[in-house]
Design a protein that fits this description.
The chain has 389 residues and is an alpha+beta fold.
């Protein structure tokens, strides 16, 4: 798990900064990923929970008090649940735009991960630890009875865990799949179907084990091993799913993500009747757009990763507008959730350039919203898209 956390960092840097693995540990890109994106705090939390778990595990191995060991183990379990919750925030669930839906998606993903971990961990214990324990602690004629009593006690928990996995997986599918047809027309949907089929196969193995348990024959080996191996395949499918983007609705594709992001800048108001965003492609060229009685001009220089200078001006009849109250620039990444940067532009700075150090620090597309208010309380607003290279 610790190795996975460490590997997640350069992987995230390659995604954010658009560099290969050889340059993934570049100081600037690494620092931007850890300290300028939502990934950083969650990554530190995951790392901290695992390191604390190592300390607790060391304490368990050193203590001679069974009660102290129990306390340390329960503390470790709580830390690992926190790790699972952190992992949920880094998945697709954490990228859901609507806040209420995002909370539901994250909570469902947390339960999904936790239930799967407990179920597979229990299967591992039934396969490797339980037979040794009963052979050590019971007489030969008592071993089968003790073994099957333990298996039967686990059965209700297994049903709850499987039900939780199914229900939370269904919730995640409903959230991330825009249409039913996306289930069989997208890579994301096909992986979900594969996971569902594998889950059914696991349940068949479990049913076989349950029927065997009614006869209380020999210890379970092949069926539990098969169930565990398929569970590991399901985990692999889940890791693949985490790196496959959910399908985007056709309308959202047609809008080039402008609708959703523009709505964020307008307090959730519809933007269907607004002008589409204007692309900024040349750092040496000033882009001019007409908006009501004004002309907005914007240039981003050098339009590359790192600090950029924004040259914003508001013209009226070819001259700088004098009847303005305020000018605000808001910047948000389109490709991933990195938060929003809001810049209150002093009216005396219009046309002179404002240096932005941290807002355009990834090789992604950014939506730049220009919001101007004149003294007649008329709103002049326009959206631009800057592709940082």
């Amino acid at each position: 798990m610790l190795l996975g956390v460490f590997l997640a960092l350069p992987l995230q840097v390659t995604s954010n900064a658009g560099v290969n693995w050889l340059h993934a540990l570049n100081g600037e890109a690494l620092g931007a990923t850890l300290f300028a994106t939502s990934f950083g705090p969650i990554w530190f939390l995951m790392l901290g929970t695992l390191l604390a778990s190592f300390v607790l595990q060391y304490g368990v191995s050193r203590t001679r008090s069974e009660q102290t060991a129990d306390y340390l183990i329960w503390a470790q379990i709580i830390l690992l649940f926190l790790f699972s919750l952190s992992k949920a925030f880094l998945g697709h669930a954490g990228g859901v735009q609507n806040q209420e839906t995002r909370l539901l998606a994250v909570f469902a993903d947390f339960l999904h991960l936790s239930a799967a971990a407990i179920w597979l961990g229990s299967l591992f214990s039934l396969l490797f630890f339980l037979p040794r324990a009963v052979k050590k602690d019971y007489l030969p004629e008592q071993q089968k009875t003790a073994y099957w009593q333990t298996v039967h006690r686990f059965s209700p928990f297994a049903i709850i865990l499987v039900g939780g996995i199914f229900l939370t997986g269904l919730i995640g599918s409903l959230i991330h799949l825009p249409t039913f047809s996306a289930l069989y027309t997208s890579a994301y949907g096909w992986i979900i179907l594969i996971k569902a089929v594998l889950l059914v196969i696991m349940l068949l193995f479990a049913l076989y084990s349950y029927l065997r348990g009614q006869k209380q024959g020999e210890f379970l080996k092949k069926s539990v091993l098969g169930e565990l191996l398929i569970g590991l395949v399901v985990l692999f499918a889940a890791s693949v799913l985490a790196n496959v983007s959910p399908p985007v609705p056709k309308q959202a594709k047609a809008d080039s993500t402008f609708e959703g992001f523009s709505a964020k800048f307008n307090h959730g108001k519809s933007t269907k009747n607004e002008n589409p965003p204007t692309q900024l492609t040349d750092p040496n060229k000033t882009t001019r757009v007409k908006e009501k009685n004004y002309e907005l001009t914007l240039r981003v220089e050098p339009l590359k990763l790192g600090p950029n200078t924004l040259y914003l001006d508001v013209l009226e009849n070819g001259k700088r507008a004098r009847n303005l109250q305020q000018a605000v620039i808001k910047i948000r990444c389109i490709d991933m959730d990195m938060g929003e940067t809001k810049i209150q532009v002093p009216l005396s700075k219009l046309g002179k350039g404002i240096v932005v150090k941290d807002a355009l620090d990834m090789k992604h597309r950014f939506l730049i919203n220009v919001h101007v208010l004149d003294k007649n309380y008329q709103v002049i607003e326009r959206n631009f898209i800057a592709s940082i290279k």
